[in-house]
Write a structure and sequence with these properties.
There is one protein chain. This protein is of the alpha+beta class. The protein has two domains: 5-150, START domain (Alpha-D-Glucose-1,6-Bisphosphate, Chain A, domain 4); 168-304, START domain (Alpha-D-Glucose-1,6-Bisphosphate, Chain A, domain 4). Helices cover 28% and strands 38% of the residues. It is built from seven helices and 14 strands. The chain has helices at 5-13, 15-18, 103-125, 136-147, 189-197, 199-205, 285-304; strands spanning 25-28, 35-39, 47-56, 60-67, 70-81, 84-93, 168-171, 176-185, 209-211, 218-224, 227-237, 241-247, 253-264, 269-281. A hairpin with a 2-residue loop joins β5 and β6 (84-93). It starts with a helix and ends with a helix.
């Protein structure tokens, strides 16, 4: 493209420029190991959340994206060329086995990034490529027709659970972390909600429970090994969102925040679920991550039962 490499680099690394082609909200820590987070719109929780794996301004930016759609690597390579700049974008599946990249998301994800690249060119040059403007649904069908035969499972929606990614962990003040889990489940949202709020179902993935399903209502969970989690509900939007707070010794609270919504994917309507644990003491974060990975795995079974 007929623009200097510095202009192209700015479109990849400055939040105001990212808003022109990828998403209107960005939180960037531009260093290897730093986070690269961009929300696709202001209303939903749908976002790119990744860790930067390579960073060499203004020539190389690479980050992993490990969410419900699979383990993916994204790499932007920039080179000055003939008074302008050439951008090479590569998307790579990091793992092929379970847990790992889910084939049903690959074609749609690739089609989506193809459209994002068209928007990136427009943001840098002010003019869209000749083929730009294709609706996502059309692009996805084209990608599935072209690449689907090489991706076993690309046309099989998740019957129970999709990719089970590890949490995305970010700092939450000195001594605390925030853990965010993302899942795609096959059971409908009302069954997931039942598994989160009905004591008989909660027992299948968390432990024996008492829950007063009202704002400010008490919650008590048998966490196993003699431990009991006690707290109260701080957010309640029936069928969509529930959060409860668990008091800590220093007066703070760990907030367990669930959000779920039906997702009309091309092949089926599945449930998109996110779980955010806010203000987890950093020494406890690794154990909390492992415990909630197991609980989320069992939650899908409880929803199907």
């Amino acid at each position: 493209m007929a623009r200097p490499i510095e202009r192209a680099w700015a479109a990849l690394t400055i939040p105001a420029r990212l808003a022109e082609w990828l998403g209107p909200i960005a939180d960037l820590d531009l260093r290897v190991g730093g986070h690269f987070m961009v929300w696709f719109d202001r209303e939903s929780d749908d976002a790119v959340r990744g860790r930067i794996t390579a960073y060499a301004p203004p020539h190389l930016l690479a980050f992993d994206w490990n969410e419900a759609g699979g383990d993916l690597g994204h790499r932007f390579e920039l080179a000055a060329e003939a008074g302008g700049c050439r951008i090479t974008f590569t998307q790579t599946g990091l793992r092929q086995t379970t847990p790992g990249m889910q084939a049903l998301f690959v074609c749609g994800g690739a089609a989506g990034w193809g459209l994002f690249m068209d928007d990136l060119v427009r943001a840098i040059t002010g003019a869209a490529p000749p083929h730009a403007g294709e609706p996502f649904e059309v692009a996805e069908r084209r990608y599935r027709a072209r690449f689907g035969p090489f991706l076993p499972g690309h046309d099989v929606p998740p019957a129970l659970r999709g990719h089970e990614s590890e949490p995305f962990v970010t700092p939450a003040g000195e001594g605390f972390s925030k853990l965010r889990f993302s899942r795609v489940y096959g059971p409908p949202a009302d069954r997931i909600w039942a598994a989160l709020t009905q004591p008989a179902r909660i027992a299948r993935w968390y432990g024996r429970a008492r829950i007063d399903l009202t704002p400010g209502g008490d919650v008590v969970f048998d966490a196993g090994g003699g431990a009991v989690d006690r707290g109260f509900i701080v957010t309640l939007e029936p069928g969509r969102r529930i959060a409860w707070a668990l008091p800590l010794a220093d007066g703070r609270h760990t907030v367990v925040d669930w959000a779920l919504a039906p997702w009309e994917w091309s092949m089926a309507t599945v449930t998109r679920l996110s779980l955010t644990l806010r203000d987890v003491p950093q020494p406890a974060a690794p154990e909390a991550a492992a415990i909630w990975m197991r609980r989320l795995h069992d939650l899908a079974e409880a929803a199907r039962a």
